Amino acid sequence: MEPVTSRVYQSLSQLKSPLFRGSLLTSASVLERHGTDESYHAARIPDAVAVASCEGDVQAVLRTCSDHGFPVIPYGAGTSLEGHIHALRGGLSLDVADMNSVLSVDPDEMTATVQCGILRSQLDNYLRDTGLFFPVDPGADATLGGMISTSASGTTTVRYGRMRDNVLGLKVVLPGGKKIQTGKERRGCSSAVDLTSMFIGAEGTLGVVTEATLKLYPRPEFSRSTVCTFQSMEDAIRTSVKILQQGVGVSRLEFVDETSIQAVNRAYQSWHEEKPSLFLEFQGSETSTKDEAETVKAIANKNDVIDVKTATELEDQKKLWHARHNSYYAILALRKGGKGVISDACVPISRLAECIRETKEDIADTNIFSAMIGHVGDGNFHVIFVVDLNNLDEIRTAKEITSRLSHRAIRMGGTCTGEHGVGMGKIPYLKAECDATSLELMRTLKKTLDPKGIMNPGKIIPE
Amino acid sequence: MSLSRVLVGVKRVVDYAVKIRVKPDGSGVDKTNVKMSMNPFCEIAVEESVRLKERGLAQEVVAMTIGPSQNMDTIRTALAMGADRGIHVVCDQDLEPLAVSKVFQAVVQKETPQAVILGKQAIDDDCNQTGQMLAGLLDWPQGTFLSKLEVENDALKVTREVDGGLETLNLSIPAVLTCDLRLNEPRYASLPNIMKAKRKPVESIPVADLGVDIKSHLDVLRIEETPKRQGGGKVESVAELVDKLKNEAGVI
């Protein structure tokens, strides 16, 4: 172990409880896991992993690492897509997954306060008999801390908004070990500077979020899901734009291309129609969802739909949505050992069809294999390339197409990072998206909060 | 044909997501401040009963629980999922499956349902006995480990998950049924339904009023956590592996 690392390790091991009650791990497989996310970026392994059991542990770790100027990378579930948790300068991976309790639920105020290591699915499960739920669903089973740190959105954003709209307050431990409580635990309170907002999307570069107060919503009384299959992607996208422009109250509106569905069928031996498809979900009452589904059917029929299937029983809906929810891993599985290069462009709805068409043309010019899925409800879509990490040409082609797509999206008034965050992969585009003074302000903020630069170094802000 | 009344049993157990701990004195599981929920297999039983009603195959669904005052929460959840009314047999001690079946028998005699639907087992004791014992006490046919339930020609056509695959049976009515995992996906309780549930009638019956013998026949000697997993070891050659299997593990 490097001298600095061993000094940090010693400092942490010597901390007597109650200062540090967690554990320190250095086995190869644990380190590897904490240096690899779900992207194609090569693994960057930390020097050690500290598993925190409580807020006090997080404070002890940040204090110790601050004293030694040692990098710290907060780690939740490792589902990030742009190398967010990769230890670019070594350091300590701070695993908060054990801090996963629901601290309180207030059914009258419709809020919940949770520890940030809790998985989205754990929270959903906990709330299942309260009649309330937390709606943001990024697709991956990430921790709430991870979702906050990347300002996640997802399949339900078209109706319920993003993390930013649904986080009321945070507890954050700052570099140096001090802790703060941002926002209030109730909705509708104003305060001087919106500190909560600052940490949402900060990807662990400004501090470690340990607790969050979240806005909950009544679970819909009834939900109905519909899948529309089309001959071409253009028909599907055109239909989705018409559905949105007509103001149909959809709760999920997703596009999945035929390649993705083929991948799912192959991975799971399922029998979904292998055609460009729209997956929709309507929530409300039995009658309101029926009306919405019929409106969509009528629109789809006017736009050359091949088939419309609707389901109401929970397990039938799950079967329908299976093709969308499992697409990423199924697509990766098409190629043994393949890794994903995944774009995250988000454009105004009015430019969506144009953006996708130009992207498709660009891809067709190369010979590279790709699949496409998207939250077309927010103008957000993902192109997924499955690359062989040993084939540098392939990786370069995939990155070039993604780069052109990112610039295309920015040019069309959108963003290159709809929901995956910046991590390390999207840093080059930040200059195109943000003006120089904004970037300067971000740097100043970072330097003020983290003068030694220990928090997740090398992420978000271009140097 | 439609069943006039279905009786569903619901048990309040430690929530399946909780990491349980054994009390230091080995007397039991530490349940202080631990989240309690309806047993997952009971949720499936309630869901199936409510679906029967929605399909017009059952007229009334009655949810029943045995336990202390906190069990009211469990009944209310069943009501929020669609049960019509509840029966709370108030009892402060933990009952063994035989005692539970006898309590159910007494309530069955009172309520005369045409089907009793239970979860196949509870996730705290994993006994998987109540349904079978109840059928024995009532001398009713039983369909256990159901993955499918249909009402056809005045009989219950059930599909059971068995070791060899799936078994389909016709049971005459009345019958006892126990539900397995793949029978259905239980619905979430919505807020409006939780509100409605508060106004549905629940009858409280002290267990003594049923005149049932609930004496326990089992003594719990001790409860221990499973031993911690030991690390494995690596060997350099097949000869070394064989040697270890023979002389250390003693398995060959």
UniProtKB/TrEMBL annotation, chain A:
Top class in the EC scheme: oxidoreductase
- List cofactor names only: FAD
EC assignment = 1.1.2.4
Keywords (A to Z) from UniProt: FAD, Flavoprotein, Mitochondrion, Oxidoreductase, Transit peptide
Domain FAD-binding PCMH-type, by residue range, is: 42-219
What InterPro entries does the annotation carry? Answer: FAD-bd_oxidored_4_C, FAD-bd_PCMH, FAD-bd_PCMH-like_sf, FAD-bd_PCMH_sub2, FAD-linked_Oxase-like_C, Oxid_FAD_bind_N, Vanillyl_alc_oxidase_C-sub2
Q: Which GO terms describe its biological process?
A: lactate catabolic process
Q: Which domain of life is it from?
A: Eukaryota
**Annotated Gene Ontology cellular component terms:** mitochondrion
Compartmental location: Mitochondrion
Principal localisation: mitochondrion
Record-level Gene Ontology MF annotations:
D-lactate dehydrogenase (cytochrome) activity; D-lactate dehydrogenase (NAD+) activity; FAD binding
Q: Which PANTHER family match?
A: D-LACTATE DEHYDROGENASE, D-LACTATE DEHYDROGENASE, MITOCHONDRIAL-RELATED
Family that this chain belongs to: Belongs to the FAD-binding oxidoreductase/transferase type 4 family.
Q: What is this protein called?
A: D-lactate dehydrogenase (cytochrome)
Q: What is the lineage of its organism?
A: Eukaryota, Rhodophyta, Stylonematophyceae, Stylonematales, Stylonemataceae
Automatic annotation (TrEMBL), chain B:
Subcellular localization(s) per the UniProt record = Mitochondrion matrix
Q: Where is the Electron transfer flavoprotein alpha/beta-subunit N-terminal domain?
A: 26-214
What SUPFAM superfamilies does this protein map onto? Answer: Adenine nucleotide alpha hydrolases-like (SSF52402)
InterPro entries, per database record: ET-Flavoprotein_bsu_CS, ETF_a/b_N, ETF_b, ETF_beta_N, Rossmann-like_a/b/a_fold
Any one Pfam family match given in the protein's UniProt record, by short name: ETF
For the keyword Ligase, the answer is: no
User: What parts of the sequence cross the membrane?
Assistant: none
The Gene Ontology terms for molecular function here are: electron transfer activity
Q: What GO biological process term is on the record, naming one?
A: carboxylic acid catabolic process
Gene3D superfamilies linked: HUPs (3.40.50.620)
By its UniProt entry, which CDD domains does this protein fall under? ETF_beta (cd01714)
Q: Which UniProt keywords apply?
A: Electron transport, Mitochondrion, Transport
Q: What is its main location?
A: mitochondrion
| Entry's Gene Ontology cellular component terms | mitochondrial matrix
Role played: The electron transfer flavoprotein serves as a specific electron acceptor for several dehydrogenases, including five acyl-CoA dehydrogenases, glutaryl-CoA and sarcosine dehydrogenase. It transfers the electrons to the main mitochondrial respiratory chain via ETF-ubiquinone oxidoreductase (ETF dehydrogenase).
Assembly notes: Heterodimer of an alpha and a beta subunit.
Family that this chain belongs to? Belongs to the ETF beta-subunit/FixA family.
Q: What is this protein called?
A: Electron transfer flavoprotein subunit beta
* Organism this protein belongs to: Rhodosorus marinus
